Amino acid sequence: MRSTLTYPNGPANHNGYQSAMYEARLFHDPYDQFGWVQEWRFALAEVLLFDLGEGTPGYNPGAATEPEEDSYAVECLRSAISTGTTVGDLRRMQRVLDRFREMLAAAGLDY
Description:
Blueprint: H1 16-26, H2 33-51, H3 72-82, H4 87-106
Helix pairs in contact: 1-3, 1-4, 2-3, 2-4
């Protein structure tokens, strides 16, 4: 099922934040919203830390020294960075996803 939260002209006409969120929304899973938001939150934290040297409060990579290589979310974020998405754009996306996660938790939809 395709997400209804897409841009009519694709991500090309939008800023870095909108382009990155466009990719995330394309793969939104309405049946496992908590899993979806967690996947993207971890991908953001890993890309920010390992690719851009920016830490994320509350994120502990443990023994990891690089992002999970087979993660589609990581690849999308790296692609967005290569086309101009900034650290500020990724932080904004992180705040939106954090808030969505909190809303899911408040509604009892987390696990």
